[in-house]
Amino acid sequence: MAETTGAANGAEAAHGEGGGLVFHPMDQFIVKPLFGSAGDPVGWLTVTNVTLWIALAVLCVIALMVLGTSGRGIVPGRVQSVAELAYGFVYKMVEDVSGRDGVKYFPYIMTLFMFIVFANFLGLIPMAFTTTSHFAVTVVLALAVFLTVTALGFIKHGTKFLQLFWVSSAPLALRPVLAVIEVISYFVRPVSHSIRLAGNLMAGHAVIKVFAGFAAIAAVSPLSVVAITAMYGLEILVAFIQAYVFTILTCVYLKDALHPHH
């Protein structure tokens, strides 16, 4: 009887009077004004929770890459070592994927990687806001990459940049069809680039919130705690992998702009 009562009380905690769930997994992604009352309208110049956590991510990048390396010690400390590892990791990625010509654009790609990494990991702090789970943020990042590499392709190669869409190695009869497919896939790039990052982070955080809600039910509480721990560990991995994927795709797109031939 005691076990039945405990389960019933847990169920009541997880469900509202109308039978709906008390916890809402998607509430954590709501954009709210940082100052003022809840429910106040959000305008272009409103300082929100998104603004706060974007600013914190930028400050973390500055703290690591500028303040952390200001000493320039021959024998690096812990912070400088992390900064140097990140620098070498991204530099090698750009060089290997985009070639030597792409190294001059390394600062931009390095900035992208560091911002996304810190934004992803800051979002794992309890009660934090994951800015990179919002399409408004990831679409801007993806569009910046798309417009930059497209402009770079035309600036460096002029109309020869259109060779990117013409598969000269294919049979002549198939080339027009492949050209249409290439054009469509090219303009879909910013969509897939942004959705992949935001979608993975949003899904993982929502699942953790669901498991956390069921932790109120005594009968399944131990399983919920285990599931939350496992998902949190997976999200730590996802936070880095998604930053890596976004960055390496940027390098691939840069390579196409620098060398637009099949």
UniProtKB/TrEMBL annotation:
Species whose genome carries this gene: Roseivivax sediminis
Summary of the function given for this chain in its UniProt record: Key component of the proton channel; it plays a direct role in the translocation of protons across the membrane.
Membrane topology: Multi-pass membrane protein
Signal peptide (residue range): none
CDD domains hit by this protein: ATP-synt_Fo_a_6
One Gene Ontology cellular component: plasma membrane
Transmembrane segments: 50-68, 105-129, 135-155, 208-229, 236-255
Protein name: ATP synthase subunit a
InterPro entries: ATP_synth_F0_asu, ATP_synth_F0_asu_AS, ATP_synth_F0_asu_bact/mt, F0_ATP_A_sf
Keywords: ATP synthesis, Cell membrane, CF(0), Hydrogen ion transport, Ion transport, Membrane, Transmembrane, Transmembrane helix, Transport
Subcellular compartments: Cell membrane; Membrane
